[in-house]
Design goal:
This protein is of the alpha/beta class. The protein is built from nine helices and five strands; from the N terminus they run E-H-E-H-E-H-E-E-H-H-H-H-H-H. It has two domains: about 130 residues, Rossmann fold (3-Layer(aba) Sandwich), CATH 3.40.50; about 80 residues. Strands 1, 2, 3, 4 and 5 form a five-stranded parallel β-sheet that branches. Helix 1 links the parallel strand 1 and strand 2.
């Protein structure tokens, strides 16, 4: 069984990995576990994502598992500076290569989610019914309208007003949607296969993870 460390930027992603992705990958010979991004001192847990911070954290985690990957949002990168998702992933990998002696690029897979984790939840708006206090015909219709306006949930744009998480918060009555509570529940209700069918970048990432298991 190959142990795969998935570096997550926040608690929502941690719960998603634990409850949804890890069980899914188990049948492919992968024992996946989340690791919340933090500084070497243990402070500043989660968030504040930069290429440098990811490089430092992954370098410290490199020998703690057989493989290591990331689940961080494109929207949240504080040092994006016009770089594309592919460029961010390449710069993370290059930084790790400069940092670790004897680094093997086959064992590290930086992955940046477009545009953020909450976009995946639009793979099936009906699953938002888990937000029981805020679920009604109006919220359902507005969620469906967002999903139908884009070819893929990963295309939902990332301005401070229209990022997926901002849209969700604007649709549900204040205080009814909890990112850390409802996000993983909704993802679990949707299922990894449905998310993969609707989200090509996420699907490609999972395929690469599965390939690790097939080489065991």
């Amino acid at each position: 069984m190959i142990r795969v460390c998935i570096v997550c930027e926040g608690q929502t992603e941690v719960e998603f990995v634990k409850n949804c992705l890890a069980p899914y990958l188990l049948s492919h010979g992968l024992q996946a576990f989340p690791s919340l991004l933090r500084s070497p001192s243990g402070h500043h847990r989660g968030g504040r994502v930069t290429v440098e911070r990811l490089v430092k954290f992954i370098s410290h985690q490199y020998h703690e598992a057989d493989r290591i990957t990331t689940l961080v949002d494109f929207y949240g990168f504080q040092d994006r500076n016009g770089r594309s998702r592919a460029e961010l992933e390449a710069d993370i990998l290059a930084g790790i290569e400069r940092t670790i002696t004897g680094f093997d690029p086959r064992f590290v897979l930086p992955y940046v989610q477009m545009h953020e984790f909450e976009g995946l939840l639009f793979s099936d708006p009906q699953a938002f019914m888990w937000v029981e206090d805020g679920w009604n015909d109006e919220t359902q219709a507005r969620l469906e309208a967002v999903a139908q306006a884009f070819d893929s949930p990963e295309d939902i744009n990332d301005s401070p007003q229209t990022a997926p998480s901002k849209r969700i918060l604007s649709i549900f009555p204040a205080g009814t949607y909890s990112k850390t509570e409802h996000g993983p529940l909704i993802a679990q209700a949707i299922g990894i296969d449905t998310i993969r069918a609707k989200c090509p970048a996420f699907n490609a990432w999972v395929e690469k993870l599965q390939a690790w298991g097939s080489t065991n």
